[in-house]
Amino acid sequence: MKLARLLPATTVYAHCDLPCGVYDPAQARIEAQSVLAIMKKMQDNQDEMFQVRALLIKEERAELVKRHLWVLWTDYFKPEHLEKHPNLHDLFWRATKQAGEAKHHTEPEVGEKLLELIDEIAAIFAATKKA
Amino acid sequence: MKLWPLGLYRVSGDSMLPTYRPGDTLLGWRWFRPRRGDIVVVQRDRPLIKRVAHVNVEGVFIEGDNPRRSTDSRSFGRVQPSQVEAKIILKLG
């Protein structure tokens, strides 16, 4: 009954006073952009030391992508989100797996695919914020 | 005893999920004594909505239905029955 929402009512708080986490898929996206940028740079610079450093940084950034996605998945999303977006679990599974792929590979397409998956998650995230 | 027995309340926050969602409009009944299992409005620094976990001579222990997202008697202790303003009897929408 939507009309009930128009009634004047006292706001009662069902809150947590602890500083709650701030959730935003942008965190994962920034790290994934970094992964993609490293992949592109690795194609342009074959210097051995550069390649080693780039690999190390890519490894670290891809791990951060996973970490940020896991936090969103386990802490932000709730069962009622899953009801509305039944592909959520599969999407997170594919995105975190893709972050693993980004460790194994240096082709920018792998990084681009990772960004696409994060954007799909971001779209669902935005939809839940509107609700 | 309050003069008028009914109160209208609107939920803000997640701590009563899955029972009540943010934005739900609830009807409360004020002429009552809190009992275990009641969902109640409690006056503190701001009005809270929580569930009565148990009641004894020391007061009323209240908890959110979604404990991971709730600040309640687990952190601030029992509340006094005089702080318990209403019990929820109906969800209007």
Care to describe what's here?
By secondary structure, chain A is mainly alpha-helical. Chain A contains five helices and one strand; from the N terminus they run βααααα. The longest helix of chain A has 29 residues, at 48-76. Chain A starts with 9 loop residues before the first strand and ends with a helix. Chain B is built from one helix and six strands. Chain B has a six-stranded antiparallel beta sheet with strand order 1-2-6-3-4-5, with no helix packed on it. Strand 1 of chain A pairs parallel with strand 1 of chain B.
Order of helices and strands of chain A: EHHHHH
SS-based structural class of chain A?
mainly alpha
Strand fraction of chain B equals 35-45%
Major beta sheet of chain B, specifics? Answer: 6 strands, antiparallel
Give a count of the beta strands of chain B, DSSP E runs of length 2 or more: 6
Low-confidence stretches of chain A: none
Distance between the termini of chain A: 16 Å
Radius of gyration of chain B: 12 Å
- The span between the termini of chain B is 27 Å
Principal-axis shape of chain B: globular
Structural key phrases:
heterodimer; A: 131 residues; mainly alpha; 5 helices; 72% helix; 3% strand; B: 93 residues; mainly beta; six-stranded antiparallel beta sheet; 1 helix; 43% strand
Brief sketch in words of this structure:
The complex is a heterodimer of chains A (131) and B (93). With 131 residues, chain A is mostly helical.
SSE topology sketch:
The complex is a heterodimer of chains A (131) and B (93).
Chain A: E1 10-13, H1 26-44, H2 48-76, H3 79-84, H4 88-104, H5 108-130
Helix pairs in contact in A: 1-2, 1-5, 2-4, 4-5
Chain B: E1 6-12, E2 25-29, E3 39-43, E4 47-56, E5 59-63, H1 73-76, E6 84-91
Antiparallel strand pairs in B: 1-2, 2-6, 3-4, 3-6, 4-5
